[in-house]
């Protein structure tokens, strides 16, 4: 979002307040240009090696976003058969889709494998089942847990010793025993360390662990190092230096390939990095309440639409796009849900008046996909702006949508 010389905010020259007037509030708006830019940035950083991007689509499954990803050469990582179907609807071949389950029922794995997706096997029992079911007829990747703690906070770390995800590298012998027993065709090793990882160091550390383990598997084609790159949440926030990370990992990857004796593909599965910054949640100010403790600004949204602050304590930058030049004051921004849903405490913002439109930044990842109908509230509409054109890509929900699955009250 840019502040113009006329002191108004625009996204690709489109006035976001006008979008709220047209499509209602609250509204999710995505800037396709940002997605294209972030993708290019990642591709450039790894231009020296054979690198493939698999968008972790749990961060945003709007079909228009998935279609855009497909157009720009980004493949998919899915965590459920539902997401697999979304990928197919967006036009992906199942061969371009990786299924990375976390302890799902084996019939889901079967559905995905038989549809043609490749699976990241995440437990010894699943590996046993995979061997018994497919022997050496279907390829798979194995998800390792490298026992490295990294990420923004404990709730979004996925590779420390206590994490539920993947098979501990300490069980490598056991993995190899099962692989040999069924002659399982392991074509890749995978790991995903967590989210909001700023520095290159943890990525290098886990890469080394995976490369070391990889020497035990003779038929590899792929090393998948997951996602988790940190993005900017506040102005001047330190973020992953992608070019630096790209150079460092590429160098180690090349050395590894030499040692391994063959050129492999390196995969990444970013969610946040590709879509966090593209998204805005636009809301209306419902009440400005001067309380002896602090000034509360209520908005027509809540943790039902954006749960990240309450779930992980995450920071979202907020702009008062209706009054950019207003005098700065401290506001506590809260939702309309009957539950504590604080978005920001004592946040300096240009004077907020009832009816002002506020914009939450970094709402493109884990925003809409984590939303709910709590308090019988409707989920917002979504708009994608691409090539200078704003398009409605999801309509706002209605009461009928809420009643659709309740039995006995509608015809
Ligand atoms: C969630 C997830 C990702 C994406 O994480 P980001 O922090 O959004 O980049 C990648 N891989 C797997 C397996 C995941 O579960």
What does this molecule look like?
With 411 residues, the protein is α/β, with parallel strands linked by helices. It has 2 domains: 2-30 and 276-403, Beta Barrel (Lyase, Ornithine Decarboxylase, Chain A, domain 1), CATH 2.40.37; 32-274, Alanine racemase (TIM Barrel), CATH 3.20.20.10. Helix content is 29%, strand content 24%. The protein contains 12 helices and 20 strands. It has helices spanning 16-23, 32-45, 63-71, 81-89, 106-115, 124-134, 172-182, 200-214, 242-260, 272-275, 308-312, 399-403, and strands at 2-3, 9-10, 27-31, 51-56, 75-78, 97-99, 118-121, 139-145, 167-168, 185-190, 222-224, 265-268, 279-290, 295-299, 318-320, 328-334, 342-350, 357-360, 381-386, 389-394. Strands 3, 13, 14, 15, 16, 17, 18, 19 and 20 form a 9-stranded mixed β-sheet that branches. The mean pLDDT is 95. The site of pyridoxal-5'-phosphate has 17 residues, from helix 10.
Features:
TIM Barrel, 2 domains, binds pyridoxal-5'-phosphate, 411 residues, nine-stranded mixed beta sheet, Lyase, Ornithine Decarboxylase, Chain A, domain 1, alpha/beta
- Which regions have little confidence, pLDDT < 50, spanning 5+ residues? none
CATH class of the largest domain: Alpha Beta
Main beta-sheet strand count, sense and barrel state: 9 strands, mixed
Indicate the overall shape.
globular
**Total E-strand runs:** 20
The count of domains is 2
CATH topology of the largest domain: TIM Barrel
Number of helices: 12
Over the alpha carbons, how many angstroms does the gyration radius reach?
Answer: 23 Å
Average predicted confidence as pLDDT: 95
Q: Would you identify the CATH architecture of the largest domain?
A: Alpha-Beta Barrel
Structural class: alpha/beta
Beta fraction: 15-25%
**Cα separation of the termini:** 45 Å
Give me the CATH superfamily of the largest domain.
Alanine racemase
What share of residues is helical? 25-40%
Bound compounds: pyridoxal-5'-phosphate
